[in-house]
Fold:
Amino acid sequence: MSFVFSPADTSSLPVAGSTDRFPVRRIFCVGRNYAAHAAEMGGDADREPPFFFMKPADVLVEDGAEIPYPPQTSNLHHEAELVVALGQGGRDIAEADALTHVWGYAVGNDLTRRDLQAEAKKMGRPWDMAKGFDLSAPIGPVHPASQVGHLAKGAILCRVNGALRQQGDLADMIWSVPEIVSFLSRSVVLRAGDLIMTGTPAGVGMLTPADTCEVEIEGLGILTTRIAG
Structure:
C-alpha cells in the first residue's frame, strides 16, 4: 500500500526529565469546570454533566514558543488549564479505575478567539473556529504520574507580562479528573495518547501582540508563551 502523499508527522510533547516524547492522538477539552469561571462566562455553578469540545492534535505549541497573533479575532484570551495525558484507553471506565488510565499531567493554555466564540454562541453554532485554530494549544512537558502523583489540589495561576490574571486551585474543579475520564469514556472509546484539558479558573482575559503569558501549576512548573509583536 502507498499513500497519495506523505502522512503528517505524529504530534507529540516532551516528557519532563527525559528524551522521550509523548505521542498525542486527540485533545478533548472540558467546558466551564470551575464555578467562578462559569459565572464570569454567564453560566451557573450547578453540577450539570460536563460538556466537551475538541482541538486538533496538530495545534500543539511547546513551552517557550513565540506564536503569531491569530487571524480573524481582536479578542484573543488565555485560559490556564491542567492537562491529563492518558496512557491507556477504554470504554465505560469506572470512576474508581480512572486514574490507572492516566499516564501523566501537564500545564496547558486553552487559547480562545473569544469574539468568535461569542458570535457562535449567539448563533447557536459550534465553537470549532474559536477553539481549534492553528497554534491554539500551548502545552508544557508531560510529567509522569509515577513521579508527580495524581493531582487533585494545588495552585493554578496565569500571569501576563508578570501581572497576575488567574488564580485558583485544582481542588476547585467542579468535576474531578477521575469523574471527567469516566464520563468522557461513556461517549467515546478513549485511547492512549489522548489529552484532556480540564477547564480554567476565573480571570480569563485578553492577550495582545508582544504579551508574554505564563501558566503555572503547583508541581508541574511554568508554561511560557509569547505573542509575537
